[in-house]
What we know:
Elements (H helix, E strand, L loop, with lengths): L8 E7 L6 E7 L8 H5 L5 E3 L5 E3 L9 H5 L6 E2 L6 E2 L5 H4 L6 H5 L16 H8 L2 E2 L13 E2 L3 H4 L32 H9 L3 H19 L4 E4 L10 H25 L7 H24 L9 H4 L6 H25 L4 H27 L11 H18 L7 H27 L5 H11 L4 H22 L5 H21 L8
Antiparallel strand pairs: 1-2, 1-9, 3-4, 5-6, 7-8
Helix pairs in contact: 9-10, 9-13, 9-14, 9-18, 10-12, 12-13, 13-14, 14-15, 14-18, 15-17, 17-18
Bound molecules: iron/sulfur cluster.
Iron/sulfur cluster (SF4) binds next to helix 1.
Amino acid sequence: xxxxxxxxxxxxxxKGAFPNTRRLFSVMRCNHCDDAPCVEIxxxxxxxxxxxxxxxxxxxxxxxxxxxxxxxPYDALYVDPAKHTAAKCNYCAHRIDVGLEPACxxxxxxxxxxxxxxDDPNSRISQIKSRTQVSARKVEKGTxxxxxxIDGDVDSLDPLQTETQDAYLWSQQNRGVGQHAPAAPDxxxxxxxxxxxxxxxxxxxxxxxxxQKLLDTVLSDQSAxxxxxxxxxxxxxxxxxxxxxxxxxISAGVLLLPLLAQALGWSTWSLGSWxxxxxxxxxxxxxxxxxxxxxxxxPKRFLYVLLRxxxxxxxxxxxxxxxxxxxxxFLHTAIAWLAPQSRLEWMSQxxxxxxxxxxxxxxxxxxxxxxxxxxxxxxxxPIQMLAHSIMLGAATLTLAAPFSTxxxxxFVIWSLILATLTHLSxxxxxxxxxxxxxxxxxxxxxxxxxxxxxxxWGGNVVVGGVLPILLCLTGWxxxxxxxxxxxxxxxxxxxxxxxxxxxxxxLS
Length: 508
Ligand code: SF4
């Protein structure tokens, strides 16, 4: 194993007040889930479940999209720093195939790890499990984990019961040698730095208070502390994913609005105007592709998504939707040129409207497959992503407002206002109504009251919502581009928060 990454590790927690404290140890690793979300989201079948139940991995297929790391609720996967592919415990499948036990079972000096076939009622592990009370990690995720803990301690198995602390001897976590480290300085998003700056030096004060709280806890409190652990993976989907959402939103939105206006008879477009929006859409679609490939650990394998698809993954469905969307743009352009006002044009127009909307929304379904991130399971996310796209499309069209007709500007203004109100309503619903889990609630609190509050209220609500709406209500064509620029910033901030904040919470 390369230094700094772990297929299996031992987490220490400490409970009780001095001097009556005790340490508890839990072995963490892949659970070889019966319903494994990592297998479901993997776009290229690099992760697969064998007939004997082992969730195995083929790194020759992996494109390094890191979707499995977002889908696994147990932090079991990492990026191999040497091979640049995802990896995890595979139950030593190579040893099982020749009749041996996993290496961790053999090396453990106290038989603390027991392996075997849970489907065989006569196996030692089945018999121990049938007469012993066992627990598992995050059973509420519905993944049906196949790893059980005897006397499992809830504070140890639930990552949100204890915070990562650096006040213990050996508890400071470093990145390891050569690790693909999302926490590296170059992975820190500039917007994060801006948020820290706006916090006006609160960070040091908060660290001091954290240490004081820990000291108080050790001396008097009974709550659990995390004393030693493997490094957290941190942000595995970074600015490339935020930027991909943003460029994709512009590409879909800038076509959706003119197409809808024309289809509903509110406006007609000359071929020249259509070519201008079409080219804008294609440029941003190309940038979307660049961002998607740039985020891969194995960018040369990006075509595997289309050529070796695993159809349950929304990464695959999304790749095909984007491909169909770009094809439909060329098709509609050709038909609008060769057979204007025809039934064929009407059909290609509605096809393109449908594909634009799907392009805007499909990432919400991909995020929903990422079962490790509770905040991404929001039912309003598809609507919010569509609203983002309409906002970005309208913002792009406002740049031409001083040269457009008053009737068209009214259409753009009201599209922008309605989409922005929808986006803010979705924020309100996500942050107030849909918290079924503690992790989702914590993410919401980090946004509205925690370290990201400046970006949320300042960038997302004021710059990206209230001010552009007020500017639009003036109806002055020359201020509309300013409203549009604010929307560009606000939507980027909103998407940054959506991508980054849920990844701040530990999964193991
Ligand atoms: Fe292992 Fe996580 Fe996949 Fe479950 S979801 S099989 S724990 S990697």
